[in-house]
Amino acid sequence: MPEVSLHLDEDIKQRVAEAARVHGMTEADYMREAIKRVLSEEIIGERPRPTLPLFDSGNPSLARSVDEILAEGFGRDGLG
Fold this sequence. Notes:
By secondary structure, this protein is mainly alpha-helical. It has helices at about 10-20, 25-45, 65-70. The longest helix is centred in the middle third of the chain and has 18 residues, at about 25-45.
């Protein structure tokens, strides 16, 4: 693989370093993945769509009863 030099502003370099650390990657691997993602979005023209369902509550009637469930206690703890 040919080597490429990339000059980054210090703030971007720090953000890359932090993101790479969070993802458990080297900075070089993180930048390669980021570039691949951007290029695939440009070529494909759309971002990947989430796979549905996003979660399984185990309660098939949850969507039909959401208003009642929320009314039972939404906001009572002072967080809502």
